[in-house]
Amino acid sequence: MSSSRPGNVGIVIVSHSPKIAEGAADMVRQMVGDAVPLAWTGGDVDGGLGTNVAGILEAIETAWSPAGVAILVDLGGAETNSEMAVEMLAEDRRSRVLVCNAPVVEGAVIAATESSGGSPLAAVKRSAEEFYA
Amino acid sequence: MSLDRLARERLVRALAGSVIEHADELTRLDQAIGDGDHGLNMKRGFEAVLATLPGLVDKSLPEMLKAIGMTLVMKVGGASGPLVGTFFMELGKALPEQPSRADLVAATEKAIDAVKARGRSEAGQKTLLDVLVPVHAVLAGGGDARTIASEAAEAADRTTPMLAIRGRASFLGERSIGHMDPGARSASLLIGAAVETLEFEVNK
Among A64, A80, A131, B173, which is most exposed with the fewest C-beta within 10 angstroms? Predict the structure, then answer.
């Protein structure tokens, strides 16, 4: 899933459960339509519950935007694997991908809404994280 | 120490075997305080490592360790993949091709620091670091292979009464007390397998 509007920050949703990741992406689409590059990934390499670095790298590629990508994660492994994936990106992309400390579903919807208005990556991340504040 | 091709293959098979043979035990430990996938995840990762033989051992020791780390990062999944994978990758980056014991001590310290950074954790939080850090101290203090192996096993045991502060087990709060940490256990298995294989080299 991706969009042709490259000016907006991309959103990547990473959950241990592919169903949750896909469902959260559906909610984002309903909010913001195609205004935001979006991708989701979930499950381990065998299709069980979990997350995997290769899937996350692919999702970042799909949702890539010159404005950067915000990643929303659920539990610990999703975060650790996402940080690992970011480090494996080409150097010029690494600083433009941020993992948000926010609830995955709510954070994704809020981040995408912020992105759809053309906000920069830092603002997108901040909005998602304010959900906790 | 200098590991020829045969010794490198023995090492890889011993590391993989130690985890694969104990996969059910690791899963049981993880079912008690985590999400029950540690044994399966580690087994998948090390089976993937074995699948890269024999080409894997054509590489030099540092390159081989980096390749093992990358395979684990990509295949293990869960938080363990990046943590254990980072350890191997950083060890490979820091070790020369024919490391002395001092090189091993220094490289292991760098690899442990990388694991701390990756997990934003320190020893004392019921994780694999509670094995890696004390084992490193024994290695740095000149301990022989047997002392290193027994410290690894005892350090894993010492995680049983600890309170989990990082990782999934931390969700359980005080209920995490009384169970050995599965990541600490798998680290102790890997260390035990490594020193058993390298015994003569380590004691030089």
Answer: B173
- Non-local (6+) Cβ contacts of B2 within 8 A are B98, B201
Does a cis peptide bond (omega within 30 degrees of 0) precede residue B134?
A: no
CATH classification number, A10-130, choose in 3.40.1280.10, 3.40.50.510, 1.10.3720.10, 3.20.10.10: 3.40.50.510
Q: Which candidate, A101, A133, A103, A128, places its Cα nearest to that of A36?
A: A128
Q: Is the Cβ pair B167, A84 closer than 8 Å?
A: no
Contact between chains at B37 and A80 (C-beta distance less than 8 A)? no
CA-nearest residue of chain A to B74? Answer: A53
Evaluate whether the domain defined by B5-202 bears CATH number 1.25.40.340: yes
Vertex A27 angle, CA A69 and A55, to 5°: 45
CA distance A55 to chain B (A): 9
The amino acid at residue B110 is K
Interface contact B79, partner A, CB < 8 A: yes
Dump pLDDT digits (tens) for B9-54: 999 999 999 999 999 999 999 999 988 889 999 999 999 999 999 9
Q: What is the pLDDT of residue B34?
A: 87
